[in-house]
Amino acid sequence: DSRNMADRITQLQEETNLLATYMGDSVGVLQNSGVNSEKGKSDIALFSKLISDTSSNINLLIDSLPTEEVSSSNQYTRLLALLKENQEADKELLKTKKLAERQLELIKSASSHIASTQLKIRTELSSKLS
Questions:
Q1: What is the DSSP letter of 67?
Q2: Cβ 35 vs Cβ 44: under 8 Å
Q3: d(Cα 18, Cα 123) in Å, to the nearest integer?
Q4: Which of 61, 71, 95, 117 would give a disulfide with 12, using CB separation of 3.0 to 4.6 Å?
Q5: CA atoms within 13 A on the CB side of 87
Q6: Is 62 in contact with 8 (CB distance < 8 Å)?
Q7: What's the rounded Cα separation, in Å, for the pair 39 and 36?
Q8: How would residue 2 be classed by pLDDT, with cut points 50, 70 and 90?
Q9: Residue 110: how many CA atoms within 13 Å on its side-chain side?
């Protein structure tokens, strides 16, 4: 059933893209041929039919999509589940933040130790070379 719905959604996307193409092309063709010329009138008729047929196809595809009846009880249950997921994600985020802060402190400490060791080595080298 989900595969069938995915196919319909893909068809709906394709039809929507086709409709956009027809609408854009119609503007360009009508600008080139002119609305009052014979060619312009036939182009108007052609694009009107293409746009109308594509719009009908879109409506049929939309109507064929399954509808989901959602009761207030189901919505409430789903909202509670989402709230619980959000709270769990929040706890995980706080744990990750604390871990990152501890690691940052370790890095700062190591960096400070490295800098002081480098300074000590430079000072000793400088005094030996003098």
A1: P
A2: yes
A3: 75
A4: 61
A5: 6
A6: no
A7: 8
A8: low
A9: 6
Looking only at Cα atoms, what is the longest distance across the chain?
99
User: What's the pLDDT band for 1 if we cut at 50, 70, 90?
Assistant: low
Residue found by looking up tokens 């009908």 in the block = 56
Locus of tokens 């800098």:
115
Q: How is residue 53 written in tokens?
A: 């047929």
Tokens 């409430």 found at: 76
Can you tell me the distance from the alpha carbon of 117 to that of 32, in angstroms, rounded to the nearest whole number? 77
| CA 86 and chain centroid, separation | 20
Residue 4: pLDDT band (50, 70, 90) is: confident
